[in-house]
Amino acid sequence: MRTLLSRQILYRATAVVVVLCVLAAIATSAAQYGRPRIASHAGPRAVVLILPRPHYLQQAADKRVRDRHLIVPVTLFYQGAYYDAGLYKGTPTPMALQAETVYEVQRSGEPVGSITVEDAGMFDRGWQGEGRLRLNGVPER
User: Fold this and answer.
1) Rounded Cα distance, 48 and 138, in Å
2) Alpha-carbon distance 43 to 70, whole Å?
3) Ramachandran angles phi, psi of 120, nearest 5°
4) Per-residue pLDDT tens for 4-47?
């Protein structure tokens, strides 16, 4: 009887040890193969629409006028909330169109270049900015 009781205790203790080892292996493998944590960006994020200049301005003799694109602010994500980018902190210009603001230009989700806000103004359709588009892999002229 005594040997039967000691065997049951031994089997139970062995089962507990095996379960604990399996749980420890799962916990370490989850930490090892888990998705790396990416620090969330705390600053503001904006979405703008970039439009080519009208046809008559693309024919201009001045190269600085030809190479500029229109920047139309759409939305701004800041401190966990979405705002109208054409209105947010609009004194004297909206935050999304402040000078020297750099935007990454994407086509179908792939980065193709960048554009820097050089000038902004209020027009009858709302705020618009202007800037030079710089494409990746294309040398400066």
Assistant:
1) 22
2) 24
3) -145, 150
4) 567 777 778 788 888 887 888 777 776 666 666 666 666 788 88
At 120 the pLDDT is 85
Q: Tell me the domain boundaries of the chain.
A: 1-38, 45-135
- The torsion angles phi and psi of 18, rounded to 5 degrees, stand at -65, -45
Q: Is the pLDDT confidence value at 57 over 80?
A: no
Alpha-carbon distance of 132 to 105, in angstroms, equals 11
The 3-class SS string of the chain reads CHHHHHHHHHHHHHHHHHHHHHHHHHHHHHHHHCCCCCCCCCCCEEEEEEEECCHHHHCCCCHHHHCEEEEEEEEEEECCEEEECCCCCCCCCCHHHCCCCEEEEEECCEEEEEEEEEEEEEECCEEEEEEEEEECCCCCC
Opening angle at CA 89, ends 64 and 92, nearest 5: 50
Structure tokens at 102: 């750099």
- The per-residue pLDDT for range 95-140, each reduced to its tens digit, is 888 888 888 888 888 888 888 888 888 877 788 888 888 888 776 6
